[in-house]
Amino acid sequence: MLVVDNLHAGYGLSEVLTGVTLTVKKGTVVALIGANGAGKTTTMRAISGMISPSQGKVLLDGAPVQSLAASRIARLGLAHSPEGRKIFGPLSVEDNLLLGAYRLLPHFFGFRAKAAPDLERIYGLFPRLKERRAQAAGTLSGGEQQMLAIGRALMARPKIMLLDEPSMGLAPVIVQEVFRTILRLKQEGMTMLLVEQFAKTALAVADYAYVMERGRIAVEGAPDELRKNARVLAAYLG
Amino acid sequence: MTLAIIAQLAVSGALIGLVYALIAYGFQLTYATSQSINFGQGELVMVSAFFSLTLINLGLSYWLVVPLGLLFGAALGLFVERAGVRLSLEQKSEGWILLTIILGLFFFSVAENVWGRDDRPFPTPIGSDPFKVLGVDVTPVELSVAVGVFAVMGFIELFKRRTLLGKAVEAVSADRDAAELMGISATSTVMLSYALSGVVAALAGILVSPITTVGPTMASALILKAFSVAVVAGLESGFGVVLIGMFLGALESIASFSLGSGWREVPGLLLLILALAVRPTGVFGKAVIRKV
Amino acid sequence: MLKRLLLIRGAELSMFALLAAVPLGVKNPYVLGLLTLLAIYGVLLIGLDVSVGYLGQVNLAQAAFLGLGAYTAGICVTRLQFGMPASMLAAMAVTLVLGALLALPSLRLQGPQFALATLSFTALTATALNELEWLTGGAQGLSLTRPPMFGHLFAPRDFYWFCMLLLALVWVAMRNLLASQWGRAFEALRDSPIATDAMGIGTYRHKVAGFALGSALGGLAGALYAFNFQYLQPQTYVYELTVILLLGVVLGGRKSLWGAFVGAALVALLPNLLSNRTLFELISGVGFLVSIAAGVRGLMKKTLRPFQAIAPMVATGVLVFGGFLVKNTEDWRKAIFALMLFSVVVGLPEGLMGFASGFLSRLFRIPEAPLPAPSPLDEVLPARPAGKDAPILLELRDVKRYFGGVKAVDGLSMTVRQGHIHGLIGPNGSGKSTLVNVVSGLYTPTAGQILLRGQPLPQGSLFKTARAGVARTFQNLQLFTGLTALENVMAALQGVYRRSRSLPLVLIGLGRAEEKRAQADALALLEFVGLGSEARRPAKDLTYGAQRFLEIARAVARRPEVLILDEPAAGLSHPDLLRQMEIIKSVNQRGVTIVLIEHHMDVVSGLCDVVTVLDGGKVIAEGSPDEVKRHPKVIEAYLGEVEAGPAATPSPAAPATA
User: Fold this and answer.
1) What are the C-alpha distances in Å from C276 to residues A115, A146, C28?
2) Which C residues, 524 through 583, put their C-beta within 8 Å of a C-beta on chain A?
3) A142–C427: do the CB atoms touch at under 8 Å?
4) What are the tens digits of pLDDT across the range B100-151?
5) For a Cys staple, C216 with which of A34, A206, B94, C92, CB 3.0–4.6 Å?
6) For residue C28, is pLDDT > 90?
7) CB contact, 8 Å: A107 with chain B?
8) How much is the ipTM here?
């Protein structure tokens, strides 16, 4: 589904990624873990086109997308729920969700009717969003905002979903809830690339994981193998 | 100066003030998507008015000229975006301020040479015989300004709230990066906002010209007041520009009657400097939080 | 050193000598008039360049200050019978005050709003000059005769020399200013206004002072303008002139005395260029060819974006072919000017002199002036005795900071003891960054108190907090990228500059002596962090690691009581990380108390005496690094733990944290 090959990218002069290579197979959940500043978020941003890579390839369904604008990549069916959630604060919850489906809906009229089934599905997944559908998204609590961000990404019926730090700044109870949702999506067959600060939590839901260090992949393997890897154990699972 | 005269001045002034509000609204449209405004917007108003006048002089019906004039305005808006704004936005520089000023200068010179430096009347089928509303004289032309301004602003606000594309525009102004991740192209959105801003400018020209006549100097006269309105009201609230625009129009019409026509501009400028000193983000603007 | 003096000062001297000599050979009064105008515009544009170039603000008010200066001088001469010097001083005083009054509110604005405010000021001035008939003569204009200077009546040639002399004096004064702490402050506040405040330099005060200075130069130019033409009309000082002046600065090249001079020459000579058809065709033709050559080259080498290459070609092309269609080029003056400017602004954003100086510096390698020997470190950063009892230095009492409904910091109390390295950890979004921003003055706390040595710290002002003895670094590097490593440290240096704070003293060149000392001190600090050999390198060209070290050196230059380091190890490679830890340790050993926000647990464990753990805007644990690591709440909220057992078949019930 997604192949990243020798990806280099950075901001201005500092090159953050120095050759990242990873693969996400259809229907699997892949976790990307590592210390803060290792380049996890930058990898996500380079894949989804928010920054343009200086070198390397990104293949989505076999087609190269590394030189496309973020909006083009999104229209191809890659949904990226970014770090910090980035919901549209002044817009209502429902508008946020509708915009998530921008690539599928007519841009002038009749979009509401067409989006209705998907909306219901998301509201089924997150009943609390339904209660607050007319509320400005910026007034939601952190956990609700995270659910909205995931819901918004799901509205695009993506081929693959990139989730960046879904647990950031959330109370442990809420984190559990978020991960329960991620598991449920996994069982429904969603392909996901997950960046997570809590390595243990991430490994619990992933089929395969990559450990990043200083802009490149240091270790990779199935969660069970990583749990046994002494180096990973010492650095991230302490 | 009796109360009746003041009321009369205030009403006709407020109706002209709606034109300032309309031009300022054009700034808001582009500011929302790109944090940039067209400093040559006054020239857009003027050139569109001249273009429409030419069509009318060619014998076209006024009601056909209006949509053609608006289309012309949209085209100019797109030209400004492409030639003056896009590069600076990509480079995250403020070069667009200079470039839009330069484009305005160019339009001005072209208008001066193509259409001449004199003020010319702008014929319209809408009458100018006043009728009384609650003791105040109002002409149909003045009324047409109000109708036109509220119609187009209402239409655009409706478009923003009711269509998905309109919501996409709001999404871009809320968070450009996140909008891109939804598949919304920020560049196209900025283009759309500049086209709309051009439409709004052209409409302002077509509406105000029957009252003020058309001439190259109308550009700077209108733009200064529109700037005042935009800064005083802030660059976010459409409701705010209408309110401030009408207030300013009324104020300057009273000032020019009581102090002399040369002082016409002064209330607006004083209001502006006052607003800057007291509330730099505008009366209806939002405070910004600095981030590191 | 000699070569440097010879080239730079020599070029300036020979230009002024040449210009001064012209009237000896050429007797044509028309040429003399043009040259006088050039000198006046030179002063005017140097003033405008302060705000447009050095402060980086689009200023559309300079024409108004020209007008205000001209009318002030005119009124002083006609009504008050002032002589020339007194009229000029009055013109400068009036514009200085008005400039400051305009700057005080409007410089709080950024970008378009500032341009709008200055534009309105110009319009207001034009109206006032026109309408205040009892004072200015209104639309009739104001006639005056040039008064004698100390009893001597200037002939046109004498007046020209007088204007040139003033231009030279302004030139020297500006050079003094730019070579001082003020010049660095201007550069710094453009690169990072936040860091400028956080280093105790003060963004706002420098902006206001700079703008007022530029306005006063506009007033001086106005007075000269009045004496030159001896007739003033309010219509002269309007929007059009202000735009042309602004574009003159951009065309000549911002942030350059030479650029302002070239711009002045263009503005003064432009009307004449256009009246001569052959000259116009020559200029536009050359422009067209140059833009094609440069554009094609840029496209081939991919140094230019397609638009940057093609747009100037189109603009100059329109100029050339439009020239054949148009009967009278004078009528199209503005369009021609607009097209020329468009090409330059798009194709040569640095202006003509910016381009030329890049070219010349490749041609002549001018050696930098040698640096003095570094000062002894003990003088620059006196080691403070670390008291054994370690009294409380920084105390936070129930600090809160809410953003709308989000409680980023929610009732937080902690104490930092003198001489300690105090760690601050917590998950993303736990409120660490907000807390640092509150303590350092970027945010005003919603509630609560922050005390330094028992005294309340100023709230909500980075600048005042910095002056009170708190220095900080930034998570996402806020260096003054345009300055060299040395200048970055010099800009923040505390306790060296005395005279350099006073603008008049700097202008007459009395700040120079302090520069050597500042260089020596800054160099000592660079060596302290191991960057002694990189002193001359622009901060933006340093490696990422070196940029992080430099930020610490710059903060230490403040001689702070408390140094807040916001993720100083973020993104560092392993060797750089170790070096960074050494630097932090040695700063602490010189008695500087450090608050350290960090994610790397090994950095925290290796350095900190005490660690405070935050979550949800509150303190959840405090103690030595080892204590904190074992604290159950910390493990739960931050370090993370997962239920033991096979995760290959996770159940939706309880997959994550226990």
Assistant:
1) 67, 68, 18
2) 540-541, 544, 567, 569-574
3) no
4) 989 998 999 999 999 988 888 888 888 778 888 777 888 888 889 999 999 9
5) C92
6) no
7) yes
8) 0.89
